[in-house]
Amino acid sequence: MSKPAVKTAVFFLSVLACTFLLSYAWEHGWEAKISRLLDLPYDEDFEDAERWRFIITIIAFSALSLVVPTAAMHFLFVRLAVSHTQLLSSRETAVSMAFTDALTGLPNRRSLTGELEAIAEKQPSPEKVHALILIDLDRFKSVNDVFGHGIGDLLLKQVGKRLVSIDVPGIVVCRLGGDEFACTVRDQYLTAVEELGQQIEHIITTPFTIAGREHSVGASIGIACMPSHGHTAEELMRRADIALYQAKKSDGSNVQIFDPEHERIEMQKYQLGEALKHALVADNIIPYFQPIVDLSTGNTVGFEALARWVDGSRVISPSIFIPLAEELALINDLSVAIFEKACHAAATWPSHIGVSVNLSPRLLRKTGLALKIQSILLASGIAPTRLTIEITENMRLEDMPLASETLRVLRQIGVKLALDDFGTGFASIHHLKELRFDSLKLDRSYVAELGCDAENDAIVRSTLSLARAMQMDVVSEGIEDVRQLDWLNLEGGRFGQGYLFSKPMPSSEVHTYLNRVNPKIAV
Q: Quick check: helix, strand or coil at residue 307?
């Protein structure tokens, strides 16, 4: 190779090397420093891949500038500038969309996280707090369902506008999604934060006029403050969520400030829920059986199966775990497990002794339940006529055609139906007529007052009379003393159960009990 060619090659490579070093230094250090020094805008969010793409582009243009005419290079540089401008514009749009709610134009959940992190970096003034206020609209779903999502969207926009109009220095309003909003405030007295919560509730519960029609929604509001309720964005968000949950459950104020006791209760509930899941898998939820007695003879005619959670040496009350099972959607599995165990236990009893099992409203809405029950009866070997299914009076049968049809099918094969907790819920004569219940179970709250309250006695007499007229039996729950027993015998209450006769017992004790109280007929 000739000396001129070598010199040209060395020059060419030197230019490219210098270009690389300068562009690399610019992208990975100089740009940020010089921009800050000159107070120029600087985007720190470029990824390494984008920076290397820029470096390679600069090197390519440097190489081309050595061999391409000046006019052509000018054209290429103009195109590069346009392309770069478009890239920056696209990035700005993408960033804006990532941090902004598309419907309301408010900052979104991601933006709220950034705001909370910024708040956490600076402590409030003495005796003041930073606060996060979470807002959940009540009855918004009804507006959506009845009037459509278009009206619902307009309502959400109006909610956003009202929240933004609140005159509090430094307030930041965000939409988290759905019907959830949030506000943050800095350096406020706690009393001012509480007043702000009440103000938010008021402006949201004031009716909205949309398309010439008034629409009303409610608001549940949870508040957590920094530093008393947490020092990080995550802690503040979690504890505001707990306060919001309490506001939704509250029968009083819809504005709740975080209480550490609520967090302790929620943690206990979570731990109990996990233990309940394991108990179901381990088969530790079992039926205990309480006798149902013919009050006139004292003979046991059946048993009610009551779910019990046996945890080592202790038995956990159903009043604790049944509501939790419903909340965690475990109630169906639990109900089926108790039903199956109860039927298999009843198969070992005398053939005239029946078994009553309570089925949850949620399970009764499940497709194929009637066939499932028939298969369990067949597998256990007990006659359908020995089975009584109890349903709670609080279940609205008119809202659940599938449940009603399931109960009708079961009745056709001989299964008896009982209406549990009669007198405490929504039962009506229509229910009794349509489903043709075989018995009513008089709630223990009425039995407890027998002979002590004239109005209570009149209600029970009327119930007994109604049942006789409709050819139904009445089983009185919670009989605990002879006074109640004598009153029921005198007024014609035929059946009952309660601690006067026996506490619920495990399956292993049923035969011993029957041998003691029904010695002539027990096996």
A: strand
Task: Name the maximum alpha-carbon separation found in the chain.
Answer: 129
Output the pLDDT for position 89.
58
In the residue annotation, 179 being an active-site residue is answered as yes
pLDDT of 64? 47
Pick the CATH number of 284-517 from 1.25.40.10, 3.20.20.450, 1.20.1290.10, 2.70.70.10: 3.20.20.450
The closest alpha carbon to 432, from 421, 410, 417, 412, belongs to 417
Q: Where are the domains of the chain?
A: 3-99, 109-258, 284-517
What pLDDT shows up at residue 522?
40
Q: Which residues pair with 505 in a beta bridge?
A: 289
Q: How far apart are CA 66 and CA 71, in angstroms?
A: 13
Share of the chain above pLDDT 70, in %: 77
d(CA 417, CA 411): 7
Q: Is the pLDDT of residue 96 over 70?
A: no
pLDDT at residue 71 is higher than 70: no
Please tell me the predicted confidence (pLDDT) of residue 521: 44
Residue tagged active-site, from 101, 136, 179, 420: 179
Fold of 109-258: Alpha-Beta Plaits (3.30.70)
Q: Is the predicted pLDDT of residue 95 greater than 90, yes or no?
A: no
Task: Using alpha carbons, select from 161, 149, 173, 171 the residue that is nearest to residue 203.
Answer: 161
Q: Is the separation of the CB atoms in 393 and 420 below 8 Å?
A: yes
Res 488 pLDDT > 70 = yes
The SS3 of residue 388 is: strand
